Amino acid sequence: MKNGVQGKIQCIFKCVAEELPSKKRVGQNYRIVATKEISKTALSSNLETAIATEKLDGTCCYVKEYQGKLALWARLDRKPNKKSDKRFKKFQQEKRNWNANGKEGTEPRFIWKYPDDMKEVPASWMPAHNVDIDKSNGYPIPDENGHIPGWVPISHDKRQYCWHHSVVIDSNQLALVLQSIDGASESGESCSNGLEIKVKHLSELDGMTLELIGTNINGNPYGLGSKTCPMHLLSVHGDIKAEHVPMPLEHEHIFEWFQNKHKRGSCGNVEGIVWHCKDNTMYKVHRHHLGLIWPLHQSGEALSETEIPNLCTRHVHFNSCLLQNINSDILQANSQFHIVKNMHMRHFESLRSLKWNIAES
Q1: Residue 157 lies in a domain
Q2: Are 344 and 323 in contact (CB under 8 A)?
């Protein structure tokens, strides 16, 4: 049960707005904080049967056909232009004041003029699947933040999306994927609760959303690769399970889980949890919702054992079978795939222990 990420995922806790400067968005004079109460919508989704997965810290991607063949798409939200953004922020403040005053008087409303109110996007851009559509004109409706989640094929701008391009070989329709494995790898290595870096056909990922993580993404919280030899990987949303998540779900127990007070290793050393429910809904909790820091390791300080992300503690196996008969010129054009080909069937103690450079491979 893996649900694709086609928009913003709701927090599992009920959230409220506080009149304090946002820690997430510069210039925003309010912040959204989580209470200790599980939201009613989350409770209605039967969380007891949901699958708890690790929220990876990267950038969202999507595999979908473009110009007659499968392609990797990058997340690109369409946002208000400067003039309409100013008008929308004024409306948001009026709406918060209205709520704070017991909803007295007429409820403030905002009417979008699409596409005039929005910034320009490439002609190949498309809105995400779960975006609401105005039935009167067929236009997408911005969400509560004034954004329209969407996608753009990475071929639109090869320079801007160079790290996206590093995880695919477009001509051969291949992608480099980090996935979980439980049991023996194809080489016979024992990989209980391990990871596999595998080259897969894009056809195996058709219609799926994935997270791109690595050296040049979001400050590289997992410590992958290096400046001289970057490492980037795709991971299908919902594939990597979060371990030992407490049930029933209560704020105190989840808070303790993130701090590893359950004494079951470092499984709480994650950015967050995403619950995939049987009714196709998803809910999340981020460390920031609980007042906890992320990344665990603050730059400029020595890394301690307790700061190692859980993702970096699992055994890693390489499977690059699909690369073995590919023309070397194609692989030389993408040094990352060249490394992976030479890593075929090798096994490492963790992502942190593998040697990621052409000379060592």
Answers
A1: yes
A2: yes
Token readout for 57 is 């810290």
As for how many domains the chain has, the answer is 1
Model confidence at 172: pLDDT above 90 = yes
Distances in whole angstroms, Cα of residue 223 to Cα of each of 77, 239, 351, 354: 27, 20, 9, 11
What value does the mean pLDDT of the chain take? Answer: 90
User: Looking at the whole model, is its pTM more than 0.85?
Assistant: yes
Cα–Cα distance for residue pair 119/77, rounded to 1 Å: 10
User: Could you tell me if residue 2 is inside a domain?
Assistant: no
Task: Output the CA torsion sign for 328, 332, 333, 334.
Answer: positive
Local confidence band at 360 (pLDDT 50, 70, 90 cut-offs): low
pLDDT(164) > 70 = yes
User: Which tokens sit at 260?
Assistant: 């590893």
For 31-45, write each residue's pLDDT tens digit.
778 899 999 999 999
Amino acid identity of residue 119, one-letter, is K
Q: Which structural domain, as residue segments, surrounds residue 226?
A: 10-78+121-348
> Which residues touch 38 (CB under 8 Å, ≥6 apart)?
12, 13, 14, 47, 249, 250, 251
pLDDT of residue 60: 98
Residue 189 reports pLDDT greater than 60: no
Q: For residue range 280-303, what is the model confidence (pLDDT) as tens digits?
A: 999 999 999 998 999 997 665 666
d(CA 191, CA 314): 9
191 band by pLDDT with thresholds 50, 70 and 90: low
Q: Under a CB-based contact definition with an 8 Å cutoff, are residues 343 and 185 in contact? A: no
List phi, psi (to 5°) of 86: -65, -40
Is the alpha carbon torsion for 276, 284, 35, 87 positive or negative? negative
Q: At a CB cut-off of 8 Å and minimum separation 6, what does 147 contact? A: 77, 78, 79
Residue 212: what are its φ and ψ, rounded to 5°?
-95, 120
The token pair that represents 150 in the structure block: 């969407």
Q: Peptide bond before 230: cis, by omega within 30 degrees of 0? A: no
DSSP letters for 67-95: TTEEEEEEE--B-B-HHHHHHHHHHHHHH
356 within a domain of the structure (yes/no)? no
Q: Is residue 315 part of a domain?
A: yes
Cis ω for the linkage preceding 122 (within 30 of 0): no
